[in-house]
Amino acid sequence: MNIKKISLSSISSKIVASIAIISLSITLVIFSVSKKITQETFYNVELEKADLIAKTIEPLIALNIYLGTYDNIAQLSRQLMENTYILSVEILDENANTINKTTSGWKRQNNESFVVTKSILQPNSTKQIGTLIIVYSNKGYVDVVNRYINLTFFLLLALVVLFVLFGFYVKKLLSPLRKIARLLKYYSPDKEIKIPYASQNNEIGLIANALNSMQQRISQYAKKQKNINNYLEEKVNEKTLELRTQLYIDSLTGLPNRFSMFNDIVEMGTQDGALLIINIDDFKEINDFFGHIAGDNILKKFSNRLKTIFKKYEYIKLKRLSGDEFALLFVKKPPLKDFIKIAEKLIASVEKMIFFHENNEISIRVTVGGAYQIHQALEKADIALKSAKRERKSFLLYDEKLNIEEQYKENMEWVKKLKKAIEQDMIVPYFQPIFDNKSGKIASYECLIRLIENDGNVVSPYQFLTIAKKSRVYSILTKIMIQKSCAHFEHINCDFSVNLSVDDVLSTDLVNFIKQKINEHNVADKIIFEILESEGIENYEEVSLFTNDMKSLGCRIAIDDFGSGYSNFEHLLKLNIDYIKIDGTLIKNLDKDVNAQVVVETIVNFAEKLNILTIAEFVHNESVFMKVKELKVNKSQGFFLGMPNVN
Known about the structure:
With 647 residues, the protein is α/β, with parallel strands linked by helices. It has 19 helices and 20 strands.
C-alpha cells in the first residue's frame, strides 16, 4: 500500500488560516460598512442638533428684527455662544447686510464644523426678512467616531488571539492523524501494522478501528488475489493456446489456414519456395444442389485425400485458404520440372476422385494457379489461378513475362478514372448517323459512349468498356447514356438507338429506370434498343420478356453485331425484333470477300422475309458502301458516311 506524504500540520494551518481569512474578511467588510453607516448617522445627528438650535432661535430673532430691537438680537447671539459646540452666529437682514455677528475666536478648518443656514421669516408670514447662519463644531462627531474605531480595533485583536488559540487546538486534534499517516506510509499487505488510538471513544478511535479492520481485509484479499492470479495465469495460457489453435487451424477440415501460411512464409525468410493454389470448380453448384452440409462433407473428405496424396512430401504443407480454395506451400523449392509434375499429378488425382452423398456420385474438377517464387507468392498464384479460369485451363504458372500484374494495375486505374468521370459528369453520348440507303437521308442516330478527360481528350469505349463490365460502374454508365440520350432527343424529331447488354436487359432495376426515362422524356416512339447478339442472347425467355415489354410501349428492338461469332438465325425467329445490324467483320471487306457477300446476302434475304430491316455497320469506304446497296441492305452506318459527334 503506497501512501503519498501528507502534511497534517499544513492541513491544520490551512484550516485555521482559511477560517481566519474568511472571518477577518467578513469582519472588515462589516466594519467598513458599519463605519460608513455610523459616521453618516453621527454626522446627521450633529447636523440635526445644529438645525434644531437654528429652528428654535429663528422665531425670536424674527420677532426682534420685525420690532427693530437689535440689542435683544445681540443678547440672543451671546446666549447661543454659551453652547461650546457653537463656533459662530451671524444674522443678516433681507438685503444680506450683517445685523449681528458673534464668534468664539476659533478659526474654521476644512471638515471641522457644520454650517447651518436658516431663513428668518416675518411673524405670521412667509416673507423672508433675514438669514441666520450658525457654524457648529464637529468635535462631538469626531469624538464619537474615534471611540467607535478604538472599540473595533480591540475587537479585531481579540479575534486574532482567538484564531491563534483555535489553530493550536486544531493542530492538537489532528496530531493523532499525523501519526497514523506516518505509519500508513510504509504499509504493505504482507506486513501488518498496529494503528494506535483505537481505544479512544471519538472520531480518531473510529478511524483507527476502521483502518485496522481494513488492513485485515486487504491482507486476506491479497492472499486470495495471489491465488486467483496464479489460476488466471494458467487459464490465460490455456486460452492463448486455444486461440492460437483457432487462429491458425481451419475448424472444418483441421488443416492449417491462411494465417498459418502467412506465418510460415514469414518464418521462411530468405529461403526460397513456391506455392500452388487449388480451387474447386463450380463448388457453389454443389452447395446449391445438394446443400451446404453435403458441401462441407465433401470439403472434409477432399482435404483428407489431399493429405494422403502429399503425405510423403515433407517440404509441402497443405493449407485451406477459404471456402473452396486450398494451397500447397513448398517450404523448399523443387526443380521447376518437378513442380509442374506435382501440379499435373494433383489435377489428375482429383479427376479420379468420387464422392458420395445419399447414393449420389459427385465428381469435382479443380483449377490450379502456381507461383514459382515465394516473394508475393499468394498474389502471383492467385493471378495465375484467375487467368487459368479465364482461359479455361486446368493449370497455369505465373509468368513475369505475361505482365499480368501490370494489367491488373491498369484495370484498377481505369476503374478509378471511370468513377472520377462519373462524379465530374464527364461521361457523354456521341451520336453517329445511320443513313437510309434508298433516300440517302439520315434515318436515325446511334448513341455511343465517350469519356472526356480533363485535358479535353475524348476516350473511345474500346479502352474502358470491357473493364467497366467487370466492375460495378457498368450499370451506372448505362443509366447515364439512357438519361442523356433520352433528354437529347426529347425535342428532336428523329429516331435514336442505345446499346444494351444482356445483363442490362435482365436487370430489373435498369429496366425500371429505362421505363421511367422513356415516360419522362416521351421518346417511346423514337428509341431503338440494340442488344448484342454475341452476349448470351440465347436466354430467350428472359430477353423476350424485355423485348415484348418495350415494344408494348412503342419502342423498337435491334440485334447488334449479328454475324459475329456463333450467330444463330433462331434468334431472329424467337425474338420479336425490328432491325438486324450486320457485324462489321462481314462488312469491312464486303467489296472483296465473296464469302462475306454470301453471308450478308443470306441475312438480308432471311430478314426481308421476316419484315426485319437490315443495317450495315463499319461502312468505311465508297466501294463497301456501293456493295452494301447492291446487296439491298436497308441502312448503312460507318466513318465513310458520318463520324460520331457530340451534337
